[in-house]
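Researcher: Please predict.
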Amino acid sequence: MMNKFACFAITAALGLACSNAFADESCTKITATGHPAYPVIAFKDGDNIAGAAPELVAAIAKTLKVPLESKDMGTWEEAQAATRDGKADLIFGIYYNDERAGYLDYVQPAFMYDDVAVFVLKGKEFPFKDKNDLVGKKGVTNKGESYGNEFDAFMKDKLDVTRTNGIGEAFEALTSGKADYLIAGYYPGTAEAAKDGLKDKVVPLDQALLTAEMFVAFSKKSPCRSLASGFGEGITTLTTDGSFDGMIKDATSTWDKAQTKN
């Protein structure tokens, strides 16, 4: 086996990072978690989280020869708390904000760009060009969601947005008239609407609210955080060679079959 000193010598000559090849000796397994209701990127499947994102991190962990378990930690808030407290080593499908960066090491690059949409009742669409068009209206979104530093600050200061325990409750608030609009990722929003029989009653406005980078991140308390650069290389490879596109297709098929059974 190549030792670390040999690795450093070789990769320094090539201008590459070498630390990704080695995990901390106490990193014997990666406990990963993610959003329990963000199909098809991530969604609860028994005690685990399934979807394209957990499939991506599992493939990378395999190449790094470290076992990985994708575990459901409860709500999205609880998944974030698990990484903050060191109960989970890694979280996938997370946007960046400064508060999260205090307890997470974000893996670069992002593995995808995610559109965030504004959903409304069909027939109650309103002119929408940007976030300023939401001022004066009542909104709703899921607890634990962040949409980046800039929009989070704008939402706090300028908008009237309530938080619900899950996107299903958010759609209930929208359809009952308690909210004029709902903020959610395009993928989970359209999936939840279909699941709840609302796809003919709820529509996303044509203009996306924003497009955010979606990351994998390690807990700063995890002994596996030394693998961040290795995961970055894996993400670069699998998102440029078409592999991740295939994972999205697989996750879509899995999600569709699950909904058919239900």
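Model: The longest helix spans residues 243-261.
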